[in-house]
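Could you join me in thinking about how sequence relates to backbone shape in a protein? We need material for that, and I hope you will provide a protein of your own picking. Once you have written the record down, we can walk along the chain together:

…
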Amino acid sequence: MAPATSTLRAEAGRGALPRRALAQYLRLLRLYPVLTKAATSGILSALGNFLAQMIEKRRKKENGSQKLDVSGPLRYAIFGFFFTGPLSHYFYLFLERWVPPEVPLAGVLKLLLDRVLFAPAFLLLFFVIMNFLEGRDAAALAARVRSGLWPALQVNWRVWTPVQFINVNYVPLQFRVLFANLVALFWYAYLASLGK
């Protein structure tokens, strides 16, 4: 009987860690919403860049001796922490206050505001900040914006429009940044591939 009991305890213990982590995240989200979203954004943004490097390395079939660029995930962590998390937090609050749920077609209006105003501005900010963090000059920024902004925005609209429709209509306000960050994990992998 003892082995069965210890097996049950071990199985129950496996589920305890994710529950404790979720409870801690919810506690931090309640106490420090902007800081928690900033930290989450920074971590997931860095992870997205790391993922992009791994994909690129595998695509080129490079051997294991090729080292990863640690400055890439650091740049993405900085962008996620200082820009993505806080700006997204306040933008979603703005959407809720400016377009209350009782407004006819509120979900569609929120989606349009996100897609037409926020997405282009945020993508341009991404290009500017990454250019600065990479130590490049204004000419490099202009070239990058000319060659990459429009294609990135078109992909953004295709990828993020259904995501943001779900996000602004069905995801509770306090989880919208997290939801977007989880999708952004792959989006940042795409953006990082543009820089190559």
About this structure: The helical segments are 2-31, 33-59, 71-98, 106-133, 138-170, 176-194. The radius of gyration is 20 Å. The first helix runs from residue 2 to 31. The chain has a mean pLDDT of 88.
